[in-house]
Amino acid sequence: MTSSSGPSKTQALYRKAKTLIPGGTQLLSKRPEQFAPDQWPAYYREAHGCTVIDLDGREYLDMSIMGIGSCLLGYRDPDVTEAVVQRIQHGSMCTLNNPEEVELAGLLIDIHPWADQVRYARAGGESMAIAARIARAATKRNLVAICGYHGWHDWYLAANLGQESALDGHLLPGLSPNGVPTSLGGTILPFEYNRLDQLEAIVARHRGDLAAVIMEPTRSSDPAPGFLEGVRSLCDETGAVLVFDEISVGWRLILGGAHRKYNVEPDIAVFAKAISNGHAMAAVIGRAAVMQAAQESFISSTYWTEGVGPTAAIATIRKMQRIDVPSHVADIGNRWRAGLESLSGKHGVPMTFSGHPAISKFAFDHPDSLALETLFTVRMLNHGILAATALYATLAHQPEHVDRYLTAANEIFPELRQAIENHNAATRIGGPIHHTGFRRLT
Ligand SMILES: Cc1ncc(COP(=O)(O)O)c(C=O)c1O
Asked: Using alpha carbons only, what angle is made at residue 64 by residues 63 and 65, rounded to the nearest 5 degrees?
């Protein structure tokens, strides 16, 4: 780790940001408060591979969420960067359309032969709003059954109208629907993953009104036998559109959507994040019979036509066709988890693990878990490592990066053990405990 002396420019800028930008950042998951308030570096000057350099010139190994899963090949991937720079030099925007969007459509449909047509956006949440709109337009129905997190838009947050905790079990707790028209209340019907009985109950009550079932094909565990097939059958029976949200899990378990691993085909699949390795891009792909409804509802936006996103997606997908990224990230994730499991036993620090190896998570199995997590993160920062409770493994991570992380963790775990014994993790942090879920910054 290189460091610079003097007051931290990174921390000072974030203090200023909070006076100018409500909530400090544009994405909840990038708030330093989610990791270690007042200590986590909010800003980067440079990022490449799995290396991040903050505004003070401090260099970190990123063993955390890697751009919230947006950079599966690692930061500033050379092949993607080269393609993008060329597109920029030729002009990334003009009155006419970029031909890459047609090439990308062909590529996506080749990988997903059940799909016939494609629409684009630039972010995950907005592409899910497009999918929900298309499904409602195609079926001329209103109600949507959902499982999991699908972004910030009105259609989804409507689930929390009336009952603010309806989405709490779906990745992000505490999502406030303030500002969402109350008239949307009752339009979104949540069910839990692997609970086909819950979806059956929704179908029994709303059979002729269900426009869509919108869910991730998997998030942290494999589907129970028959679960995805059961969802597919219920959609077939009722005429609801089955939408798989592949924004976070797509490309990580297998090339293309994770649904390919489970052999269950949706009517629409949505990709963003890793599809374009750090450049804004999202794709909604689907069967022609459903996608044609996009012509009968107004869905249109200027920057959905710029050329960098599709160019980055083509370069990213072509690279993933050449290199077996899913095997690599599974190996890295498994090595990380096995190493931590062994440290947990060695030092008597109780931990639990969850998630696919490609997006692996741990928790300290203790009432002081939030304080222990924050203490761990703060101590890892001193070792020049960005570490949280999840690792989004990437192609840029090599076994030696995991080993460096585990060597540092091995030095930190004895203090965690002491903190557990003395019930004083919170007082060791040197700042506040990290936040979880959505809440207002004071
Ligand atoms: C499954 C899923 N859907 C939708 C989104 C929203 O994507 P974005 O943050 O690009 O709007 C996310 C983001 O984490 C996600 O994990």
From this structure: 135
Q: What spacing in Å lies between the alpha carbon of 165 and ligand 1's midpoint?
A: 19
Give per-residue pLDDT as tens, 259-287. 999 999 999 999 999 999 999 999 999 99
What residues line ligand 1, using a CB cutoff of 6 Å?
Answer: 68, 123-125, 128, 148-151, 216, 245, 247-248, 272
pLDDT digits (tens, 9 = 90+) for 343-378: 999 999 999 999 999 999 999 999 999 999 999 999
For domain 9-76+324-428, the CATH superfamily is Aspartate Aminotransferase, domain 1 (3.90.1150.10)
Encoded amino acid at 186, one letter: G
| The domain defined by 93-306 carries CATH number 3.40.640.10 | yes
The rounded Å distance from CA 149 to ligand 1 centre is 7
Instruction: Tell me the C-alpha distance between 189 and 199, whole Å.
Output: 9
Measured from the CA of 27, which atom of ligand 1 is nearest?
A: 9
| Closest-CA residue to 247 (of 159, 156, 322, 335) | 156
Atom number, ligand 1, closest to the C-alpha of residue 29: 14
Q: Which residue's CA is the nearest one to ligand 1's atom 8?
A: 124
Residue ranges per structural domain of the chain: 9-76+324-428, 93-306
What pTM did the predictor assign?
Answer: 0.97
